[in-house]
Each structure stands twice: as C-alpha cells, then as structure tokens.
Amino acid sequence: MGRPSLASWLWEVLCAVFSLESRLPRTVVGLTLDPGGFARAHAAGRRVVSVAPLHYALATSGLWFLAIAFVHPGGTDSLDADQGELVEFIVSHGQALNLVLLPVIAGAFQLCFLGTRTRYVEHLWLTLYFAGHIFLWRALLVLAAGLAGGPEELFVLADQIVFLVYLCWALWGFHSGTSGRVSRAIRIVASILCVSVVSGLATALVLGLMGIDPLDLGADSGAPALGGAANSTPAPTAAGPINSGATGAR
Question: Where do the segments described as Disordered lie (predicted)?
Fold first, then answer.
C-alpha cells in the first residue's frame, strides 16, 4: 500500500459522509432510469442503497454553483447593475432560499394528487430527488455550454425540454397504480401549472424584495445571468428546480 495522499484522504471523507462508493452511483443510475420508481421505493422504506434525498439535493446543487463559478470565474464584471446585484444575491442566499422553496413545490404536488393516499412527506422525498437530479443535469449543462460554446438559446431549450419531460416522467412513475392513466395525466398537467405559478410568484417575490424590474433583466440579451439566461425568466433564487434557462452560458 502506497503512502496516503491528500486526494485519497479527501475521498475517504467524502465516502464516509455520502457513502459514495456504493450509494451515489446507484442513486444516480436509479434517478436516471426510473426516477418515479426509485423515489417511491425510498418512500416505502427501501433506503439502504441510496443517498438520502436531502443530502443528494444539497450535494448536486453545490455542484451546480461550482460549475457556474468555473465557467464564469470573472463573476459579475460583465453584467449590468441589476443583473450583477441579482447574481450576488443568488450566490449568497440561493441555497437557503431553495430549501424554503422545495417544500412548497411538494405541497403543490400534494394538492394536485389529493385522494391518491400519497402523503406529503412522500411528495417531499420525490421533490428533493427530482430537484437534485435536475441540479446534476444543469451542472453538466453549464460545463458543456461553457466549454463547447455555441448558441445560448440551444442550451436553454435543452434545459426546458429535459425539465418538463423529466418532471412528467417522475410524477408518472411515482404515482403508478395510485390512479387511472387519464386521471394521472390530468393531475400531472395540473402539477406543472402549479409549479409554474409557484415559480412565477417566487421569482416576483425575490426580485421585488431587491427592487429589480424583471423586464430590465431581459433588456440586454447578450448579458448572461448566473444560473439563468438573461433573455429568459430567471429561476427563482436560481437554485430552484422549478424554472429553466439555468445554463449560465455565454
């Protein structure tokens, strides 16, 4: 056995905290191949082989912020005053605001699926896993956008498509057997609408508290916002999984 290095020591610490050697790969694969079924199994008590949903959401959202910082090391120098202020607010408070927002989204899911005998805490588990995987996707998308370049609109469109498809897929699988196909489809559409309303209200609240007009953020389409395209609606707190345009691409 060779002498221990700093890298090996850090890896052992990470493994001890998140059980990366076995749980993280299984969690990523499970949420990629069958997000609804994976979250439902966790809610049913089969949790030994998966990362806890809160840990997963926190870890992947951290990766997203790191990816944005890597792609935009210059910070807010290239942004106008309002966009720069929003970016600094996101970096400082994004994680905390996101934790506040996710239980609200779970409540919206619970409201849309009343009568299916699904408890609120089960929807909260689903929301945390769903959000965590979207964060992972967006971290990869940020890196791809920053390294490969190309039209920003293309990455924003990809993010929107993945978000909607993944949300529908996760809700469909999670509620498999709880209601008929037609009823489930209607409830999923209602969930998307509810999430959109929550997204808009949260965005308006954050921007209002900061005294920023949302129309001003879209005035300069060439200036990207951290965690959101400048010519799209910024994600609430830029850490919430409920909005798209989160590439931070130039």
Answer: 230-250
